[in-house]
Amino acid sequence: MSFQTPGHALPGAFLNTPAVASRFNVQQDPVRRVLFPQNPQNLQGGQPSNPARAAANNEPVPRSVPTPATPQSPLTKAASYVNNALARDEHYPELDSYCRHLSSEYDLAEHDSAWAPFKQIHHFQIPQAVFEQYDHAQVSTAMGLFAELNHAWVAIDNCLYLWDYTHPNPELIGYEDCQHSITAVKLVPPKRGIFNSIISHILVVASASEITLLGVSRQRTATGSQNIELYGTRMTLRSPVDPCLIVGSASGRIFYTNRTDNDVYELYYQQEEKWFSNRTGKINHTQSGWAAVLPIPAKLRGAGRERIVDLVVDDSRSLLYTLSENSVVRTYYMEGPDKLTRVIEKYKNDFLRDIAHIMSAASPLLGESMKIVSISPVSATEDNKVHLMALTNTGCRLFMSATSASSFMLGASARVPQSMQLQAIKFPPPLEPNQRRSRADLFNGTNDVSVTSGALRDSRRGIRFPPGYFFDFISKPDRPDIDVLFISAPDSGRIKNSGRTQGLNYYEQANWLQISGRVEDIGLVTKPFAATDQPMGFGNELAVQFDDPSGSEFAILTNTGVHIVRRRRLVDIFALVVRTTAGEEGLKAEVSKFQSAYGRVETITAALAVACRQGDPGQFGGGRSAIDQPTLDRAKQVFINFGGNPMLPEPDGQPATIEMVRPSSRHGAITLYLSRLIRSLWRSRVISISTNSAGAFVVNSVVPLSKLRDVQNGVIALRDFLNANRSFIQGLSGPSDLRQAATKQEELALQGEHQAMHAVEVLMTDITEGISFVTTLFEERVTDIYTRLDEPSQQGLRDLTYERLFSQTPGKQLAKVLVKAIVNRNIENGSNVETVADALRRKCGSFCSADDVVIFKAQEQLKKASEPSLNSNVSLNLLLDSLKHFEKVAFSLSQANLESAITQYIQLRYYAGAIRLCLTVADAKDRGKSALSWVNDGKPTRDPRAKLFDQRKACYNLIHLVLLDLDVVSSREPEMIDNKLTLIATKRSEAYNVVASSTDEVFHLDLYDWYIEQGWTERLLGIESPYITTFLRRLASQNVAHAELLCRFYTMRSRYFDAAKVQSDLAQSDFTLTIKERLNLLSRAKTNASVMTAGVSRQDQQLLNHDVTELLEVANIQDDLLERLKADTRIPAERQVEIQRALDGQIQPLSDLFNLYADQAAYYDLCLIIYHVADFRNPTTIAQTWASLIQQTHDDVLEQLAAYNAERQAQGAAPGEPEDPPPQPYEILITKIEGICHRSSKDSFIFPIPTLMPEICRYAVENGQDGRIGADVYWPINLFLHLDVSHDLVVRVLETMFEAQAVPFRGAGRARLVEWICHAVNLWVRDLGRHGRPEARLEPWVGELIASCDTWATANIRGTNEGGADPRDLAREVRETRRTVEGLVVTPAGNRSLGFF
Length: 1397
What we know:
Blueprint: H1 30-35, H2 40-45, H3 51-56, H4 74-90, H5 95-98, E1 101-103, E2 106-109, E3 118-125, H6 128-134, E4 141-146, E5 151-156, E6 159-164, E7 173-175, E8 182-188, E9 201-207, E10 210-220, E11 226-238, E12 243-248, E13 254-258, E14 265-269, E15 280-284, H7 298-301, E16 308-314, E17 319-324, E18 329-335, E19 339-346, H8 348-358, E20 372-377, E21 386-392, E22 397-404, E23 417-426, E24 459-465, E25 469-475, E26 483-490, H9 492-498, E27 508-514, E28 519-524, H10 541-544, E29 553-558, E30 561-567, H11 570-580, H12 583-598, H13 600-611, H14 629-641, H15 665-677, H16 679-682, E31 687-691, E32 697-701, H17 705-724, H18 735-739, H19 744-779, H20 782-788, H21 791-799, H22 802-807, H23 809-828, H24 833-844, H25 850-865, H26 872-888, H27 895-907, H28 911-925, H29 930-936, H30 945-971, E33 976-977, E34 980-981, H31 983-997, H32 1001-1014, H33 1017-1021, H34 1028-1036, H35 1040-1052, H36 1056-1067, H37 1075-1089, H38 1098-1126, H39 1133-1143, H40 1150-1158, H41 1164-1174, H42 1179-1211, H43 1225-1239, H44 1249-1262, H45 1275-1282, H46 1287-1300, ...
Parallel strand pairs: 1-23, 2-27
Antiparallel strand pairs: 3-30, 4-5, 5-6, 6-7, 8-9, 9-10, 10-11, 12-13, 13-14, 14-15, 16-17, 17-18, 18-19, 20-21, 21-22, 22-23, 24-25, 25-26, 26-27, 28-29, 29-30, 31-32, 33-34
Helix pairs in contact: 4-15, 4-19, 11-13, 11-14, 12-13, 13-14, 13-15, 15-19, 17-19, 23-24, 25-26, 25-27, 26-28, 27-28, 27-30, 28-30, 28-31, 29-30, 30-31, 30-32, 34-35, 35-36, 36-37, 37-38, 38-39, 38-40, 38-41, 40-41, 41-42, 41-43, 42-43, 42-44, 44-46, 46-47, 47-48, 47-49, 48-49
């Protein structure tokens, strides 16, 4: 028992001084209000302030009082009532809090009494086929139950038979393959992954020499019964041990004991045999060493060894308990998959010592003659402290608690208990059946414990089921073949109610049950009881009596058959008491007993439940419903007459308000009953997302639809009862209640009661309609609806709980979204809108808003207007009415409904109305003009305003459809007839007047965008609007089409300079434009920049022209690079993609083009062009580049020639066939040099004649690019002269080469220079004569040069000139040239000129 240090008195509080404040409402105490300010959330949110501490201190859960200053909505208030009721139920005390010390409190009733907690509802006879087999028994027989399967079994010698005891004529399922007599049978869970999924249980069949495992599968039939089949597993353990007790853990481990000792064995099994282990084997967890492996003969074990009489498992704590015949309880901890460690061993003397410590006086029931006959585990879910219940042969129940070493030792495991001690003793009830403690003195504070009752003496076996159902089988010496059954259960209502006024006591309800025969086995038919999944609130039977009406049923097997015993709920007891009580006074007395034991609210709740047809008729297989009218009338009478009145706290200086009213117990009963009806779904999610066996996406209901319908029926029954008796129930009868008020306070209290009742009614309506909505949702293929939702709605649906759906605004809003999705889906499937709407209003009217009704009306008028039988005026009026209705609900008009209306307007040629509706809806969706501000800000991403723009855009798209249809229709009909506008022309004028008169700037911008998409640029450029210029300027940098249109806009208005700027910016933009498109833009920009524009200075125009020109040169280089690289076979395919992505787009810097591409790829011609554009003037680098270009060109052409010749040889071409050989190297070189010269504008730095010409001449001689290959020997000279290089400069360069005598122009090689000089001078002379200038003369240095050449040619007439002219012919030509030059040479008047390029 926990003790708390008393708190010190607070100075100035005067807590012991009588205060003016009400003793019923301590929260209004001004002193307490100052010292202990309350949390407003707790006062408003409907949650207890500290319910866990209140329950631990045996205090009632505090009730929140609404703050007067903040009234709540009906739904919020009703939800707080439900949450408070659920919180009180959830904080039912733990077993440890009332199972303490000594107790003998029983409410013992006769078995046929209305107050009896248990009742036998059916008796199934043992089939005759079993008796027929029993007649053949020779050695042994045994019987047992598989209650969870509704089957019983009997072992006759070596044969096992099973049958469905609920079936009137069951068929026996037999197993007859056992070699010896069967000694034990047990149904255990299988290990995971060992057996097929159809195997739900393992049947362990043990004999004296072997243990066999059988697979069990079950199938539930349409009638609710279960069929089972047995499967062989080929798992048999050969063992001389004689098993008698078998138990299985939830993980699939199997433990057993024999009849001669206290050893605990484990039968392990696996799917396949392994090297060192068979499929089955055993482990002795008690003995160590060889004793655990080798069997010990019985004669060597000794006669003094005890044997185990009970074996149980606690899966929640992984504990195994054994009970020996000497009352020794041993506790084992199940570690890992195959380890079992004994952690506690408690002998009989230890029990006696604990009993002596806890009792102040000795009891004849707990002396030396006491013997423990059975044990039952208490799971950790039920209680954290109590572990085990042990039953003595005198009928005393010993509740044991265990502690772990982790509480005082660091590093110890928190799960392994180390010690066990006695916590509480529950003594038997009094011997006299009628000695039931008077209910009038239940709260007098006395706690006398009877420790001498022998009512349960000679207890043979006992078993405990959660949350405390206790079955004690008593075998009297005079009648050993017939057991007397004592059954008890915690009186949860009294336990809960007693904590409000006094300490918690272990109250129990009990009754005797006469069964004919000896009990062989007992089992739980229904699922194990658990009000919660934690100790707090676990044992609250009242909380689940309406949510789980099936309750708890038990099957007891005797030699006469199977007896079904049912635990009666409080509502069942109340219904039977009301039914069997005679007279009004008797009824009043019984109601008084209920109220004193369970409180007024619980009593009125039970009456309300019975009035709503809850209650057990005591029939097996039937529902729990009290159907006789007298019982219903009496229950209604109790609910109405004993429900109390609302209360208003005593005034403490503050004005009373409705929020201060404490509703009546009648209202509390309604709230409590409603909360228990919906407790399983209130906090549950609505849907769960999963995949089916085929991997498809599936949306499932978390709560089964059958359960939803049961809850809905219960809530509907409650609503019907309240509606049928509205005039008799205070708070529901309306103004008539107020006439009975004698004072203002009573009137205020009745108003508060009415508001509280109204709030609960509103919630009940929303619950029933909400459940209908959920069932409708799943009937409408919720998976399709889910996929139609946007992502926020999908997430909201995944997180949606029934509490939010029933009582919170976000849940209601999400439901409206789902309703619209349902309607849209049905419309798409061809269903009638009105039919769907009527169905939704009929099932869940609160989920269809008033706006939806207006929409449906507008759709109905629109549908009528489309009827062909109406005249035009009536149809127009209907269209106008529908337009007005749509405009009223423009904000809530869904996109689907809007599209449907616009489609019908178009069909009826109501174009102006369609455009007007779209503009109205667009404005209603964005009243704050957020879309316009988003557009003005540049449309930033991840901006919430973008959603509003999208909503507007959806409306504008519909306007586009209207205008398209209008243009198509108007183009088919004339505009004028007899100088009057036709009807379609009038409609067109009206529609475009609506468009033109609109002040929606976003609409105009979107309309211009649409014009561009449609290709109506002429229409757009002809618009005179204040928005058109802004529109084009804003979007020019965001869209290529708009930029092009802006250029046209400027060009049409002779603003060429602005057009050039737009084109230049567009060429440098980040848009996905190819390099050729950018070249085109720059070319057009250069053209526009060259035209004079009014208002633009010449300096600005020249600057723009210069920038565009430079950019155009760079773009040309990049385009050349791209084309060259695309055709380059040296580059791998993956690199090609990267190159195209980089070059076929934005214009790159010159440094990147050179360093990353041109230089690396050895494109020397492009490198020279880059030098020119970049104004690069390093002569050495330029000369090296030219040399590399010449050599590369020569090598490439030679490779091509070699490939050409090889191909011709491979093809075997005849000599006479025409040839198309590739060009010679010098021809390609000439083309490249000419191209570089032109693109560099004959830049003297890029095209250096003094260095380039000797290099080309040297190439021609060294590589035989002359007459030897049929080439013109003068081609180097002709190349430069063709490029407009002056004759003077050409001859001077040749003169320099002639005088330098560099290789290869040395010795005989000088003949080629002489030949070139003679040719150049002849062309020079011819050019002078062509111009006809008589004053034209040659300078003397030319004559001197020719004279030197003549001298050298005459001296070397016998030399060679390979590839050129014959030396003799050359000498003769030089002499002729000399004679010609001598006539033109003049005496120099000064210094010789260098000549000019």
